[in-house]
Amino acid sequence: MVPADSDVRAEVRALWQRVAAERQRAARAESLASKYEAQGAMPPESLWPVWARLRDLHRRIEDRHLAVARAIELHATRMESWLGHTDGPAPRPAFIAAVASALGTPSATATLRGLRSVSVAVASSDATARAAHQLEIIMAEGPAIDATVTGASLAVAGAALLDRWPRYGSAVAGLGVRAVTAAPLGPPGTSLGALCVYGAEPAIRAGVATETDRMAGALTQMILGAARSPGSARGGAVPLVFDEADYQAVVHQAAGMVSVQCDCGVDAAQDLLLARAFADGAPVEQVAAQVVRGEIIFS
Question: Cα–Cα distance between 168 and 164 in angstroms, integer?
């Protein structure tokens, strides 16, 4: 259901306020970076490495705030267009779609993991991104899994997709994906999930790996900020990265029903749902919704 115009307008105003705030923070970081850069040319020479580290730290902080500002700006603009949509109902713009656009691609996915490294929250920009993520679940291999488990970024394209992930590489090529870039979400040493970017060309675009790393850092700030201020997520200063991921609740509900129907654990029930989705060639959430409605019964 589309929220009231007044609610959406308030949300959009909050988004633009956040854009302004992020740009102010970026400006402060740039000012500090410039100050430390200037100090790096003054005696004593023994402090030059310290000033250089501080300069680089604040340059990274500036980059992250600018990345957040750019993504939120794109999202706010799309929310305004959605608010003014007069040709019938239209889907609510997803924040992750703005993230993808900021990275110069139509397709991106952000995931948060839970127990067994299973994704508990997924935000996908489009059908290609969602299908690519579901292939990772089915094939038990792929960029989000590797980036999350290793805590390291990666960029793989062309034939190297098949070399690294024989099953996933072959399957994702059927979606028209020829290159993937992934970066872990979370503070250093604590991988909470991953940001994946999908490309149609069999090569990694120059700079995309660095941009994905920077955006992953920005999203980490937003996720942790939202966790600290749960009441300010949607409609507040922090737009949820996973604002369209409600379908995951349907999957968990369906898994509980399947576990009762088949007298098995929830983990096994989730595997049955994935297997049925793969066999039907349907999204996992679609199969889950059919289970919840009683249209599919496992026995």
Answer: 9
User: C-alpha distances in angstroms, 31 versus 24, 62, 64, 65, 294?
Assistant: 11, 9, 15, 13, 60
Tens of pLDDT along the chain (299 residues)? Answer: 455 678 888 989 999 999 999 999 999 999 999 999 999 989 999 999 999 999 999 999 999 999 999 999 999 999 999 987 766 667 889 999 999 999 999 999 998 875 444 456 788 999 999 899 989 988 889 999 999 999 999 999 999 999 999 999 999 999 999 999 999 998 877 778 899 999 999 999 888 999 999 999 999 888 776 554 544 444 333 345 776 554 466 777 788 888 888 888 877 887 788 778 777 777 677 788 889 888 999 87
Task: Give Dmax (Cα) for the chain.
Answer: 77
Q: How would DSSP label each residue in 23-44?
A: HHHHHHHHHHHHHHHHHTTSS-
- List the Cα angle 99/175/185 in 5-degree steps: 35
pTM equals: 0.79
8-state DSSP, 94: P
